[in-house]
Amino acid sequence: MFFVDTIETAGLGNRGYLAGGEHHAVAVDPPRDIDRVVAAAARRGVRIALVVETHVHNDYVTGGLHLARLTGAAHLVPAAAGVTFPHVPVHDGDRTAVDTGLTLRALATPGHTPHHTAYVLEDGGTAVAAFTGGSLLIGTVGRPDLVEPRLTERLARAQHASAHRLAAELPDTTALLPTHGFGSFCASARAGGPGGPATIGAEKTRNEALTKDVDTFVAGLLAGLDDTPAYYTHMGPLNAAGPAPVDLTPPAPADADEIAARLAAGEWVVDLRSRVAFADGHVAGAFNFEAGGQLATYLAWLIPWGRPVTLLAESPAQLAAAQRELVRVGIDRPAAAATGAPADWVRPGEPLRSFPRATFTDLAAARESASRHRPAHAADGTPAQAPRPIVVLDVRRDAERAVGHIEGSLHIPLHLLRRRAAEIPGGTVWVHCAGGMRAAIAASLLDAEGRDVVAVDDTFDAAARAGLPLTRTACARVTADQAHRRTGPDGDAVLIDVRESAEWRAGHAPGAVHAPLSRLLTGGGLPAPLHDRDLVVICRSGQRSQRAALLLAARGARAVDVEGGMRAWAGAGLPVVDDHGNDGSIA
């Protein structure tokens, strides 16, 4: 008999596992706060004999090294992972005993990372569970663009092959137990858990990695990639070097004077209370990241890495829970903290700040009111006070914006807001997202700069019901012949090729500018001389170019895409060259 317990980290969309038999167990991809894993083993009455990592994680700090040292367990890490701490290197096909009759078999499954390894739990020689990490997820796969943009397409193809290997080598009844995909940004698409048990057999009928050919799958995968949190850059190196144990003791207490001093020094003061409570009254200059939301993801994404942070919480319990979340993404020790209420956090005589919350119905009414004719003079003959202009700010990501947005709204994704705040014109800023949490963060950032803000605390579905005019970011499509005329010597546009490097080298249109979609999605831009030019976007078959054109349009560019891509271009007999100027092939 065997057991599998799930160690869930909902805020990051991840799961670790404890699996074993009567006496011994293995911990798979453990979170950094390992006390949860130790407690699970104690409840089972087993000793943790093995700790295994499927890959060097990019989205959280592993607890594997500390757990192995604490328990004396062998620490298994893929041999090619490049970690610098003592470990047991794992190769494809390695088998390791877990308990009587239970064995762990390693399967090389590159794609999410080049060294990615899945582990199959075998009971009496029969595969019963597959710990697939970031390879085969429930309904999707792990994204292949987190290691190096130039490897993205190659890893996407490896991801397809790895999914097929798992499907071919494992029985349909094998339980599928991924680490990522339950809201994690490591998933390449929306993923989650089905109503019943997830199995290899179920994935064969619904997972595009197993239902589509490799070219179609890769094109769709690359077209669907979205931005990743900035803090991911720091997770891989931290995990490869070996994270230190966590310290969850309470931070040093901060009084009102210290809070003011830290704000004056440019440090971050983060209010963990609900967005409702924060809007009603808060310390001037503080930012609002709700403890009950995706605190770790968004705070780590937005805060300059290494900047000291002071936490304000309504209770010691709320503070302790936030500390636990933050150590999982490498924010180890708050500089200071305070609990209580806003009145306790300001010096005598200092006023609290506040701003209104509203719905999309309120926004529609405000826009309607602002559009009505205003008299030039009040009743007493004095000049009438002109209403403040209304600025509608959409802080959703590019992919969300492309589905539909409020006409006339300004788009700055939340993770870019501090960098681009100067682009917001004067007036009252009504800020919205898809559900209210990100809008609250954005409103707090703008409020800290002294802007007049209204936080729209509503679901975006309500915008249409409120009568607000919506539009979809649309990009026209052109034929290959039209693209050739527009980007030729007499044309007015530049051809942007968004395929990956291997495709580009095999053959591209003369004069095209190479800007891989994977680079655009990770924040890369176009050369400055192209910023005011019309853009014609091309890929292999026309799928990725649609995504790229929408992305560029959302950033303010004038972009169209080529229907049929380079296949249609070559099929029309238009010129194709390789990197050396020779006639190329785009097979």
TrEMBL record:
It comes from the Bacteria. It holds the Pfam family Rhodanese. Keywords: Metal-binding. SMART domains: Lactamase_B, RHOD. PROSITE patterns: RHODANESE_3. InterPro entries: Metallo-B-lactamas, Mito_Persulfide_Diox, POD-like_MBL-fold, Rhodanese-like_dom, Rhodanese-like_dom_sf, RibonucZ/Hydroxyglut_hydro. Residues 263-354, 386-472, 489-578 form the Rhodanese domain. This is Rhodanese-like domain-containing protein. It comes from Streptomyces coeruleoprunus. The lineage of its organism: Bacteria, Bacillati, Actinomycetota, Actinomycetes, Kitasatosporales.
